[in-house]
């Protein structure tokens, strides 16, 4: 028996047989075949592109059905990369000008293009180069008529082991028979890891050298929480993990009993458990999880899934459906958060060296006033059907709040003039996700009705660590004492001003942080529907007074490692 360790990316225990997938080299023809022509090679290039696009659109729909709109939107970026005109023109020039076969022209074009953008300083663009290589491989295989990896029809109790699992691979996994996956590279914030958590599929990533250690068909045990993998386990260990599996299954069934219970501590402090959504299609899962509201409606996916700016009527109908389904429970609608890693094909955003620190979110909305007013009017009109709240993203200046609110007042007057009904007391809040807002949160609290802490961006901005960059991903850690102090500062500022504060980043659903955040005084936890019941159970089994003492101990720690050790 041998034990390997990686990063536990998605909780759960699996016992199964390995499907080892090591991709072979693609053989690229160096000369145009005697039976082909330049026109024929151009046709191959276009056919491969069309086939790849069709496949990605189908995968997108499958992901939307399984995991919701926010996860499906990953593939919009992939499709846009396939349609890059500069790349297509460069490859076509190699075929017509250099008389290269389509496959060789595409391979060279992809390599040159990826090399060019990977040399840029911006880590976001380096990550796009990796995405383009993955998508380009699909295009190349389709061009050469090579079968694409198919994980949709697996043997029972299969554990997929591969170097990396792309989002499209993860989306196609045969969930009836796949019981988990293990990858040699990757981290907790990789798209495949996020998808695995949504699917509640155990996953261990970043297991160095695993491809050389496992054999196809051998029995392995994997623990998606601890990151442990056991090769050729003893019968005794298999029995131990079968008991652990059954315990997890029973715990999940027990959690379902809490669906209609409130999140109240043993000494009577009540908090809210809310859900995050990307579209009206995601609301049912939130309701089924027993969540008492929606803490984050990511409206940008409504924009990303359209070939035009959604009209006021289109937006109004989407927001109205969510408000009606939630039957008076709070629905926090975040205004469009485009930019960074989210683009619109019909909005000509400038190419930036560092888009995460550039033209995005509220900055775009304030510069595109008509577009912003269209969204605000739609939200206001929908507010008559439930308890809707408006939230501005990426706020770094009080001036931005005041400008946005002035535009909101204009929208209210316009609706008054045409006799439209809306909630005249609609609440307005902000995402706290920049250091400038967190440090002087007490000033921002005077301007708004509520705060929502976005830990995904707050962590990367506070630590100057791009969460998507593997070279520094080990430094990205919301348990860093600086991040924790910032969170406490924001909560204290909100309460001092008499406003509520929620958290809608991934950290809100991390069960290791639940008692700490409870002790900090967080009012509402907003997360993926699949995490809500676990967090609720921890809160119901906690004592608020004890959690406050626990918080004081944690905030005295010096390093993320010290914090995590104390949390154990």
UniProtKB/TrEMBL annotation:
GO molecular function: kinase activity; metal ion binding; phosphoenolpyruvate-protein phosphotransferase activity
Pfam families: PEP-utilisers_N, PEP-utilizers, PEP-utilizers_C
Residues binding Mg(2+): 433, 457
Cofactor entry: Mg(2+)
Keywords tagged on the record: Coiled coil, Cytoplasm, Kinase, Magnesium, Metal-binding, Phosphotransferase system, Sugar transport, Transferase, Transport
InterPro entries given in the database record: PEP-util_enz_mobile_dom, PEP-utilizing_PTS_enzyme, PEP_util_AS, PEP_util_C, Phosphohistidine_dom_sf, PTS_EI, PTS_EI-like, PTS_EIN
Binding site residues for phosphoenolpyruvate: 298, 334, 456-457, 467
One GO CC term on file: cytoplasm
Active site (catalytic residues): 191, 504
PEP-utilising enzyme mobile domain boundaries: 155-227
Domain called Phosphotransferase system enzyme I N-terminal: residue spans: 5-128
Catalytic function, reaction form: L-histidyl-[protein] + phosphoenolpyruvate = N(pros)-phospho-L-histidyl-[protein] + pyruvate
Coiled coil, from the record: 35-62
EC number in record: 2.7.3.9
One of the GO biological process terms: phosphoenolpyruvate-dependent sugar phosphotransferase system
Residue ranges of domain PEP-utilising enzyme C-terminal in the record: 252-543
Subcellular locations according to the entry: Cytoplasm
Role played: General (non sugar-specific) component of the phosphoenolpyruvate-dependent sugar phosphotransferase system (sugar PTS). This major carbohydrate active-transport system catalyzes the phosphorylation of incoming sugar substrates concomitantly with their translocation across the cell membrane. Enzyme I transfers the phosphoryl group from phosphoenolpyruvate (PEP) to the phosphoryl carrier protein (HPr).
Family: Belongs to the PEP-utilizing enzyme family.
Protein name per the record: Phosphoenolpyruvate-protein phosphotransferase
Gene name of this polypeptide: ptsP
């Amino acid at each position: 028996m041998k034990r390997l360790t990686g990063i536990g990316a998605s909780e759960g225990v699996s016992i199964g047989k390995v499907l080892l997938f090591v991709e072979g080299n693609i053989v690229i023809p160096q000369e145009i075949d005697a039976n082909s022509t330049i026109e024929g090679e151009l046709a191959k290039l276009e056919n491969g592109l069309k086939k790849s696009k069709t496949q990605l659109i189908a995968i997108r729909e499958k992901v939307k059905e399984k995991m919701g709109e926010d996860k499906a939107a990953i593939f919009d970026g992939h499709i846009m990369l396939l349609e890059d005109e500069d790349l297509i023109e460069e490859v076509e020039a190699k075929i017509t000008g250099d008389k290269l076969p389509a496959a060789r022209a595409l391979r060279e074009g992809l390599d040159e293009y990826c090399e060019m953008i990977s040399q840029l300083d911006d880590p976001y663009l380096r990550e796009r180069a990796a995405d383009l290589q993955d998508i380009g491989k699909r295009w190349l295989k389709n061009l050469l008529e090579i079968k694409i990896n198919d994980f949709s029809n697996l043997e029972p109790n299969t554990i997929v082991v591969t170097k990396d699992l792309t989002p499209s691979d993860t989306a196609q996994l045969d969930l009836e028979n796949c019981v988990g996956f293990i990858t040699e590279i990757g981290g907790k914030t990789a798209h495949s890891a996020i998808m695995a958590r949504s699917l509640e599929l155990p996953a261990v990533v970043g297991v160095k050298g695993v491809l050389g250690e496992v054999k196809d068909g051998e029995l392995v045990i994997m623990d998606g929480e601890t990151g442990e993998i056991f090769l050729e386990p003893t019968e005794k260990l298999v029995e131990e993990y079968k008991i652990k599996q059954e315990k997890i299954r029973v715990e999940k069934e027990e959690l379902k009993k809490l669906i209609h219970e409130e999140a109240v501590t043993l000494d009577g402090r009540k908090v809210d458990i809310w859900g995050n959504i990307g579209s009206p299609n995601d609301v049912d899962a939130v309701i089924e999880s027993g969540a008492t509201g929606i803490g984050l409606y990511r409206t940008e996916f409504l924009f990303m899934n359209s070939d035009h700016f959604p009209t006021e009527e289109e937006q109004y109908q989407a927001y109205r459906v969510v408000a009606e389904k939630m039957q008076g429970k709070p629905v926090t609608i975040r205004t469009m958060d485009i930019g960074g890693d989210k683009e619109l094909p019909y909005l000509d955003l400038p190419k930036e060296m560092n888009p995460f620190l550039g033209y995005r979110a509220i900055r775009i909305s304030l510069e595109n006033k008509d577009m912003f007013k269209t969204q605000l009017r739609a939200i206001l009109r929908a507010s008559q059907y439930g308890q809707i709240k408006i939230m501005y993203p990426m706020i770094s200046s009080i001036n931005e709040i005041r400008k946005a609110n002035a535009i909101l007042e204009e929208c209210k007057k316009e609706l008054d003039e045409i006799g439209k009904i809306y909630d005249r007391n609609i609440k307005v809040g902000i995402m706290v996700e920049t250091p400038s807002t967190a440090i002087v949160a007490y000033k921002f609290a005077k301007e708004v009705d509520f705060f929502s802490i976005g830990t995904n961006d707050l962590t990367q901005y506070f630590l100057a660590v791009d969460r998507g960059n593997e070279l520094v991903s080990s430094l990205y850690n919301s348990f860093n004492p600086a991040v924790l102090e910032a969170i406490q500062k924001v909560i204290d500022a909100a309460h001092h001003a008499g406003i509520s504060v929620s958290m809608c980043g991934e950290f809100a659903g991390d069960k290791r942080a639940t008692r700490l955040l409870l002790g900090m005084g967080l009012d509402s936890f907003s997360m993926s529907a699949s995490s809500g019941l676990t967090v609720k159970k921890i809160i119901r089994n906690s004592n608020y007074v004890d959690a406050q003492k626990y918080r004081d101990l944690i905030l005295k720690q010096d390093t993320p490692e010290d914090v995590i050790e104390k949390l154990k």
